[in-house]
Fold these 2 entries.
Entry 1:
Amino acid sequence: MPDHSIKSETLEALKWLAFFFMAIDHLYRFIPLTQLEFMLPLGRLAMPLFAFTFGYSLTNFTFKNAQSVRMLLFRLLITALISSIPYIYLQSPSNAVGIWPLNIIFTFFLAVLILYINTWKKIYSIFIAAALFIIGGMVVEYFWAGLLLTISSYYFAKRPNWKNILLIVFSLTLLIDLNGNFYALLFLPIVYFAPYLNVKCRRVKHIFYLLYPLHLFLLSGLKFLNN
């Protein structure tokens, strides 16, 4: 299979596109005043793009450096915990607490932890990774579909072969079942043509660790004002 290298600036542009689609998705889900049907297909593209770009970006990360792994996991965990404050409020109806599922940053945290464990040269590492995938997939946003797409995107970026493509497609079929529609498949042509694009987009380090919780706090404010 030919190389599927995506230029770093193009990948950064895809992250911004994913964030934009995610904001649209959250507006549609959480703010009653924005129940516009045309937003739904764009919103369903958010998670596949976010998971793919995050997994793909991890190929520039050295999992053998334990200190770097700890720092990445720490950033993800802090972002996930802070984001949980508005996210729980946004998910909560008036008579319940919307703790479950945990937000998408917990999904990425778990994916990084599993990928790190997979680098261990221990016979039991595969069993720990499998247990984390099975149990963790029950509680994070998009469940096993989100985890599998993030992890398989990482392996696809490192080795673009048919096995890893099939894992990505399988994760999308799980998403179709979760979403109740086929809009997530629109992600495939975007990823297919991405290596041929040369989009100029400057990287701002760690910007999405700030923007993710910030946009949830803004949406929480809108929801509060709308109630």
Entry 2:
Amino acid sequence: MLKKFKDNLQKGQNVLGPFMKTSDPAFVEIAGHAGFDFAILDMEHGPIDIIMLQNLIRAAQCSNIFPVVRVQDASEISINKALDVGAMGIQVPQIKSAQQANEVIKAARFSPDGNRGVCRFVRSANYSAKDKFEFFKEANENLLILQLEGTEAIENLEEILEVKGIDIIFIGPYDLSQSLGVPGQVNHPEVHMKMKYIIEKARGKEIVVGTFVDNMENAKLWKGLGVQYISYSVDVGLFYQYCNDIVEKYKK
């Protein structure tokens, strides 16, 4: 699953998936059966704990949807725990500098590429059933996604993009809009200008770009501008929207 997902990105293909804030594995399975390419299991803004997380990852693997975990922060322990229970992609919020980016890479990789804490008695190593050397090698291929969400990150963008090992640069439009003084206005001209700047610079370094959208118009806009990794809305928001549409149509 990991190799196929990374190969598709390297071939220039687009991938689509929602953020998942519920703790019910059924929602993840449904997203997979619906045809989404990936699901972002959200530990930053969702109620998911580490026990829930491993069951959500199992659900993703059962329904052939690529499991990305947005960790709660850039700490080594947060990154390591998510990888230990089987995350194939790690999405790290609030990256502001090249130093932070380097620290994330090192926390997510085993030696010689990093200094991730070593334990082979974990789910991602089949609880020690997998050959340890095979495990160490495969683990260093996991997808690494760094979220750039504010003006400080943009000021340091060129240095961040020089960090080796980044697979995807993810633009957080809502936090970006807040940092630009127009909170929530994700279609504000200043927000679009900064997003286009990041896209241009990242693609110039052959780094895949991702972003979040909550409507199809914006999804098509950013896809047309070269964004390959599109996070489309949130499971709870999609469920609410569909329920609300039914209620409104019924009332008419």
